[in-house]
Amino acid sequence: MSDYEENESKFMRKAKENPFVPVGMAGFFAIVAWRLMKMKNRGDTKMSVHLIHMRVGAQSFVVGAITIGVLYSMYNDYIVKPREEQKALKEK
């Protein structure tokens, strides 16, 4: 197996384990692309301020996606699985 195939399968495995990581990555790249296109219409805003706003927006999206992913994981681990285990015990 080549390194490329190994990395691709590793990415797909990680994406299945935590589906919000690819969402965060896509949002990051979308915000960066949008702010780069908007750069030519920035007016009197300094370049450094524009780049800081772009970074903050992209980081906020990624942190939000990770937070939602963690909450989803906690919901599955602490609410859904115990209910399924209780149902399985009641059926026996």
TrEMBL record:
Keyword field: Membrane, Mitochondrion, Transmembrane, Transmembrane helix
Subcellular location: Mitochondrion membrane
Main location: mitochondrion
Record's GO cellular component terms: mitochondrial membrane
Pfam family, one: HIG_1_N
Matching Gene3D superfamilies: 6.10.140.1320
Residues spanning the membrane: 20-37, 58-75
Protein name: HIG1 domain family member 1A, mitochondrial
Organism field: Gymnodraco acuticeps
